Automatic annotation (TrEMBL), chain A:
Name of the molecule in the record: NADH-quinone oxidoreductase subunit K
Family label: Belongs to the complex I subunit 4L family.
Function: NDH-1 shuttles electrons from NADH, via FMN and iron-sulfur (Fe-S) centers, to quinones in the respiratory chain. The immediate electron acceptor for the enzyme in this species is believed to be ubiquinone. Couples the redox reaction to proton translocation (for every two electrons transferred, four hydrogen ions are translocated across the cytoplasmic membrane), and thus conserves the redox energy in a proton gradient.
Any one GO molecular function term: NADH dehydrogenase (quinone) (non-electrogenic) activity
UniProt subunit comment: NDH-1 is composed of 14 different subunits. Subunits NuoA, H, J, K, L, M, N constitute the membrane sector of the complex.
GO terms for biological process, alphabetical: ATP synthesis coupled electron transport
Membrane topology: Multi-pass membrane protein
Location(s) in or outside the cell: Cell membrane; Membrane
The enzyme's E.C. designation: 7.1.1.-
Keywords, comma-separated and alphabetical: Cell membrane, Membrane, NAD, Quinone, Translocase, Transmembrane, Transmembrane helix, Transport, Ubiquinone
From TrEMBL, chain B:
Transmembrane segments: 33-55, 90-107, 119-137, 143-161, 173-192, 212-230, 251-269, 281-302, 309-331, 337-355, 376-399, 419-442, 463-482, 511-532, 640-660
UniProt subcellular location: Endomembrane system; Membrane
UniProt GO molecular function: NADH dehydrogenase (ubiquinone) activity; NADH dehydrogenase activity
Lineage: Bacteria, Pseudomonadati, Pseudomonadota, Alphaproteobacteria, Acetobacterales
Record keywords: Membrane, Transmembrane, Transmembrane helix
Topology of this chain in the membrane: Multi-pass membrane protein
Domain NADH:quinone oxidoreductase/Mrp antiporter transmembrane: 136-415
A biological process term (GO) from this entry: ATP synthesis coupled electron transport
The name this protein goes by in its record: NADH-quinone oxidoreductase subunit L
One Pfam assignment: Proton_antipo_N
Keyword Zinc-finger on entry: no
Species of origin: Acetobacter oeni
Length: 103, 661
């Protein structure tokens, strides 16, 4: 199996990150925003993997595992917030309706 | 032992001043007076201890203590250092003992004032500044005390600051003495550039060894003399002292007796070696002193305000001291300074007690007949008046004035170019001044204490106020026996103590000189009795004010009051009138007026500029803040996506900056 060249891996990571960022900025649906965050995290993780592959270092893969755990907790917390919103009588997935913190 | 005690003399009043100023409003008013009095009393006890130590075993050299280095300059030592020699010992004794008695008196005098803490704080600071002035062994350090004394006089003259007249008087005193301070500072700087030091002993050595050429030395002497004249209210700076009566009476007593005006005398006595090297300046000093003593005595003769009479008499007595300094007998000047401190403090404190008893009436023509109602105060005032007049044998003033007069008779005053002013001229003028002194002070005494009563007399004088009066009376009577003319008894304790190596020559005084000095006050007393005192006095009514509020007493009043007298018009009145006019319309007075007006205008202008500038700045700040807050507030819209966008933008910007840099 030929390894993905680092340059290509970085390019892929940039594309993934931009997709995720665009998703966060454009979509108003909370579920899609959570998914976009996951995509961005995966982009970061991909950079770690690529770097680890390039320098033959296992640290990159360790960092990937940590990011995986982080993504899982983040998704869990995000979904829990959405469920709590439902439980408190705000059955909306629109992120822009929750702007109580406006200045 | 002495090294420890000497700084403590200054520290005690200084600490009290700091405590009183910091605790103003928190310390009960009842405690402020005793605290200040205790501090000055402690200082007096330490001074007495020092006197005992020094006099029992006279040290060969002055005791010097360097407290700390003020600043380090290449080739110029500036240190805070004290020195104790007989001269400064005498001064600290006068300042602390008379100051203590005045403080003791002020406890009761000021007890109903709402601002007791501020008053006593200023008073103790005054004493501390004066002690620094007389103790410092370095002219730069002396200047600190000199300025401190000026500041405190300003604080105290304008103590009742709600009355604009009082603040005007305070400002006048401050500005006029400040003129002299500027001259003094110039003199000091000139000295420093010439000798590279301001340490007094090194400086005087440099002068005696002829290190300074005569022209700069004369300039220095003139500048220092100007400073001393302004501080001691001599011609042409005399006008601030009578106005300084605006302050509370204990303040007047302190300014006139123990602190402030004696500073000029002390400065010249301290630097007498320097002045001895410039005979022309000495002559000038003597002439100014003589003119001042005559002018002030004439002014005192026509005043109606009790405190003003005493103020002019101080100016006059300071004139005697300057005459003595100009003659070169600085010991006599200090002797007169000491006795004057006693009797002038006594007179002022008695006057304060009298004024309080007659419901704050200060016009002597509205008093009268107080002898029966207040025999104690009358006795105290009589003692002070007798000492001021120098009634022979029984009063301290006689011995000190006699010492000055007899020395002036024998002296000659070089004018320059081989000419010299004979001492006989100044002696006769000074004798005339002594006659006038007796006349005006007994005029005051007879008008206040004899004749029909004119006012209601209320209350009693509290015990705490009579004790200082009794002490000062005793000192006024007996303070003179430490120095006597040879004709009476060969007692020269005072001059021996001050300067053991150079005793004053008394031996050649003819006896009639002493007799003249003794008879003049008696003649003055007799005339005063005829004019104002006897059962049907020649003059009983107040002088008539001429139009113009501030020219209450001009030459015409003198004339009308002198008409029934025996003195020919042209011989006596013309010079008096001219002197009187000098006293009234003097240049520094005008100058200080115009300066204060200009200052007032400038400060108004500055205030306006400041106000408009601040208004502009504040409105600008307000607008920027408001708009900025709106802008920033719009950013906080509570929408998560916007925040994310901001974060992304910031990230991009940071990255871009990092890349481009």
């Amino acid at each position: 199996m030929t390894a993905l060249p680092p340059g290509d891996a970085l390019l892929l990571a940039v594309i993934l990150f931009s997709t995720g960022l665009a998703g966060i900025l454009i979509r108003r649906n909370l579920l899609f925003m959570l998914m976009s965050i996951d995509i961005m995290l995966n982009a970061a993780a991909l950079v770690f993997i690529a770097a680890g592959a390039k320098w033959h270092d296992a640290t990159g893969q360790v960092m990937f595992l940590m990011i995986l755990a982080l993504a899982a907790t983040e998704t869990a917390a995000g979904l829990a917030i959405i469920l709590r919103l439902h439980a408190r009588g705000r059955p909306s997935l629109d992120a822009d309706t929750g702007n109580l913190l406006r200045g | 032992m002495t090294e420890l005690l000497l700084p403590l003399t200054v520290l005690a009043p200084l600490a009290a001043a700091v405590i009183l100023f910091l605790s103003a409003g928190r310390l009960p008013a009842r405690q402020a007076g005793p605290l200040a009095t205790a501090a000055v009393g402690l200082s007096a006890i330490i001074s007495t201890l020092l006197a005992v130590i020094v006099l029992s075993a006279p040290p060969s050299a002055p005791i010097r203590i360097t407290l700390w280095n003020w600043m380090t300059l290449p080739g110029f030592p500036a240190e805070i250092a004290f020195a104790l020699d007989p001269l400064s010992l005498l001064m600290i004794l006068i300042v602390t003992i008379v100051g203590f008695l005045i403080h003791l008196y002020a406890i009761r005098y000021m007890q109903n004032d709402p601002d007791t803490a501020r008053f006593f704080g200023s008073m103790t600071l005054f004493v501390a500044a004066m002690l620094v002035l007389v103790l410092s062994s370095d002219l730069l350090c002396l200047f600190i005390g000199w300025e401190g004394v000026g500041l405190c006089s300003w604080l105290l003259i304008g103590f009742w600051y709600t009355d604009p007249a009082n603040t005007a008087a305070a400002r006048k005193a401050f500005l006029i003495t400040r003129t002299g301070d500027a001259a003094l500072l110039c003199g000091l700087l000139l000295l420093a550039t010439r000798t590279g030091t301001l340490r007094i002993d090194t400086l005087l050595q440099a002068v005696t060894s002829g290190q300074i050429p005569p022209a700069p030395l004369t300039a220095v002497a003139l500048l220092l003399l100007t400073g001393a004249l302004a501080k001691s209210a001599q011609i042409p700076f005399q006008s601030w002292l009578p106005d300084a009566m605006a302050g509370p009476t204990p303040t007047s007593a302190l300014i006139h007796a123990a602190t402030m005006v004696t500073a000029g005398i002390y400065l010249i006595a301290r630097l007498h070696v320097l002045f001895a090297a410039t005979p022309a300046v000495m002559t000038l000093m003597a002439v100014i002193g003589t003119l001042t003593l005559l002018m002030a005595a004439c002014n005192a003769l026509v005043q109606t305000d009790l405190k003003r009479i005493l103020a002019w008499s101080t100016v006059s007595q300071l004139g005697y001291m300057f005459l003595a300094l100009g003659t070169g007998i600085w010991q006599a000047a200090l002797f007169h300074l000491m006795t004057h401190a006693f009797f002038k403090a006594l007179l002022f404190l008695t006057a304060g007690a009298i004024i309080e008893r007659v419901r704050h009436e200060r016009n002597i023509f509205h008093m009268g007949g107080l002898l029966r109602a207040t025999p104690g105060l009358a006795a105290a005032f009589l003692t002070g008046a007798a000492a001021l007049a120098g009634l022979p044998l029984i009063t301290a003033g006689f011995y000190s004035k006699e010492l000055i007069l007899s020395s002036v008779w024998q002296a000659t005053f070089p004018v320059g170019g081989g000419l010299a002013l004979s001492g006989h001229v100044l002696w006769s003028l000074a004798l005339a001044g002594a006659f006038l002194t007796t006349l005006y002070i007994f005029r005051c005494f007879f008008i206040v204490f004899s004749g029909p009563p004119q006012t209601e007399i209320s209350g009693t004088t509290p015990r705490l106020m009579t004790i200082p009066l009794a002490c000062l009376s005793l000192l006024s009577l007996l303070g003179g026996i430490v120095e006597m003319p040879d004709t009476l008894a060969p007692v020269h304790l005072f001059t021996r103590m001050l300067d053991p190596s150079h005793p004053l020559p008394h031996t050649s005084d003819p006896a009639w000189l002493l007799l003249a000095g003794a008879l003049t006050p008696i003649a003055g007393l007799a005339l005063a009795w005829t004019l104002w005192g006897s059962a049907n006095p020649v003059i009983r009514e107040a002088p008539v004010p001429t139009p113009g509020a501030h020219r209450v007493l001009t030459a015409r009043t003198v004339e009308s009051r002198w008409r029934p007298g025996i003195v020919p018009d042209a011989l006596f009145l013309r010079p008096l009138r001219i002197l009187n006019r000098i006293g009234r319309y003097d240049l520094p007075d005008r100058l200080s007026d115009s300066i204060s007006r200009a200052l007032c205008r400038a400060s108004t202008l500055a205030a306006q500029t400041r106000t408009s500038l601040i208004a502009h700045l504040s409105s600008r700040t307000l607008r920027i803040t408001r708009e900025g807050s709106l802008l920033l507030g719009r950013m906080q819209n509570g929408r998560v996506r916007w925040y994310a966008a901001w974060i992304a933008t910031g990230l991009c910007a940071t990255l871009a900056a990092a890349m481009l840099a």
